[in-house]
Description:
By secondary structure, the protein is α+β, with helices and mostly antiparallel strands. It has 12 helices and 10 strands.
Amino acid sequence: MQTSFFSILFVAVVLPSLRIFPLLNRTWSVAMAAIVLLHTAVIVSYAVYIQSIGSGMNVFSDIYTNFFFTKSSIGLEEISLLFLSLVPVKPQRLTKKEKQQFTLSDLLKQILVGLMLGDLNAQKRTSNSNVRLRFEQGLVHEQYLMHLFELFKSYCLAAPKTANRLPDKRTGNIYTRITFTTFSLPCFNELYNLFYLEGVKIIPSNIGELLTGLSLAYWLHHKDDSDDGTFVKGRDIVIISTNSYSESDVDLLITVLSNKLGLKCRKDKHGNGFRIVIVKSSLSKLRELVQPHLHSSMLHKIGL
């Protein structure tokens, strides 16, 4: 039978493990290695191309099935192709030009303003690098996080992942989180520069121009802990945790919520910081503003 390229490739792979490769003529060994490398590169490139159009794994599905689930003999070609299918393919990195083509719609900008006011984490690897966004929620809020992923999936390389945090220092409990991260992109830089000063999150001085009813909805339901963005039953108030902000920043937020969105608010001392309280008389107004934008899993944030 005529020996095919796949047979040669299989021999080249197996011979080293049999410790007989050194017995071959040196010149023949070099030529064999060159041929194998050249053809392997061609085949791997072809496999990557097939994978890029969404059908790469189908090429190898029959081979895997035959290899593991049948008793018939396996030819050298099948084993060689199986070997090649295991070659890892490094994910493609975006070029500078590709990164610059990403933009944010006005809708997504409003949503990101609200998320930034909450606990969305914007990151820069260096002072000159582009910004990436890291979304995180407890597993109990998986539906909401998947909703966010649907909004921002075109800015991401990978789907959300689950992971366990280190044990909570207060309770010792281990909490499972679900997260996803965007590419580092120029379109996120503007918001980062507004909301971060030397790596510390602040309230932009122009927050009155940025905050909308849509922003407020995502501010409320992105807060994850039990005392953040919380409806207090019996008192009919909504508490927004702003403890990490300075008192002057909290005062600015209250002014915007009152003057622009018509919500009566006060600030309450809480620990070393302050929380914003939207009072009972403004609950109906708050619901009118944010209910159309709240994810169904987060309606409890406004007592619904």
